[in-house]
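User: What would this chain look like folded?
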Amino acid sequence: MRLKTGFKSQAVWNEFIKNALIEDGAWTDRTSLGLKNNHKKVHATILSKQDLVIAGLEIAAQTFHFLMDGPIVWMTETEDGEKVKAGSPVARLQAEAWAVLAAERTVLNFLQRLSGIATLTRTYVDRIKDTKAKIVDTRKTTPCLRILEKFAVRCGGGTDHRFGLHDGCLIKDNHIRFAGSIKKAVDSIRGNISHLWRIEVEVETLQQVEELLGLGHGERWLELAGYLLMGNTSASLGVINQAAWDGTDLRQLHRQTLRPRLRGNTSPLGAAV
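Assistant: Here's the prediction, encoded as structure tokens.
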């Protein structure tokens, strides 16, 4: 399984890795640098201490390459996104001893952090494998590590949502409070973006779903009406999400099909539309 991290160029890679190595003091490690003059080469193996989903092998290799003056031999025993058993070798390295020692903590920090995210994501993905649901990531990431942490989510079988505030319109509870209602928020935002942009709204109650439907026909609407009348909120939201992805106008559904049936239904729900 080969997955791209998302870095646009080697220069971006280098700057990111350099800052990580500077943070740990790799070039001022008196202990490891004291061994540099003898140019002794060592063989090192990175082992998994538990069952996990591996992520971060590419940046691990790049980190060793960046610090080393001369050539290194880097061999992976698996690929990002693959499951690894406890005690299994993940990668093998042949390089000068001082470089291995100076870079090892930075490399392991990358591997441990990203593999932890990938492993936890895979746990959630496995739990919903028999459904149509998807595990998507958020912007709740470690500052300056977002590109890697979102990569780790993909390694675990999750799906990217938006990378940042710039590449998606997502109306959340605070936006709704600020605007006064879902309708006011949607109207205000829609008036300031291209018609090609899709607007997503996070809802918490069925009443909010009804209000949202008032802002937007065929077999899909009949399917949705059936789900709502049966109280199957999860399936209902799945249909609404698909309609939103397709760019379908939801007004017809609200006016002609669902409005009379939805009144008085106060079933709780927590999901994003």
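The chain is about 50% helix and 15% strand. If you want, I can go into more detail on any region.
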